[in-house]
Amino acid sequence: TEVLNETKTPQEAMDFIRKVALEAKAAM
Predict the structure, then answer these.
(1) Domain count, the chain
(2) In angstroms, rounded to a whole number, what is the distance separating the alpha carbons of residues 27 and 8?
(3) Residue 13's closest CA among 26, 22, 3?
(4) 3-state secondary structure 1-28
(5) Using CA atoms in the order 7, 4, 22, 1, what is the torsion angle rounded to 10 degrees?
(6) 2 with 16: CB under 8 angstroms?
(7) Residues in CB range of 20: below 8 A, 6 or more apart
(8) Residue 26: which domain range?
(9) Share of the chain above pLDDT 90, in %
């Protein structure tokens, strides 16, 4: 998994978290 680093903007972090959540939901 990719580690959220301090260089990401809040928007990028939110998009990343949303993408991971959707992928995790699809994998279930």
Answers:
(1) 1
(2) 25
(3) 3
(4) CCCCCCCCCHHHHHHHHHHHHHHHHHHC
(5) 130
(6) yes
(7) 1
(8) 1-28
(9) 43
CA 25 to chain centre: 13
State both tokens at 7. 């260089």
Rounded to a whole number of angstroms, the distance between the first and last alpha carbons of the chain is 17
Give the pair of three-digit tokens for residue 23: 């992928």
Tokens 């699809």 correspond to what residue?
Answer: 26
Q: Give CA angle at 13 (25, 16), nearest 5°.
A: 30
What's the pLDDT score for residue 10?
Answer: 86
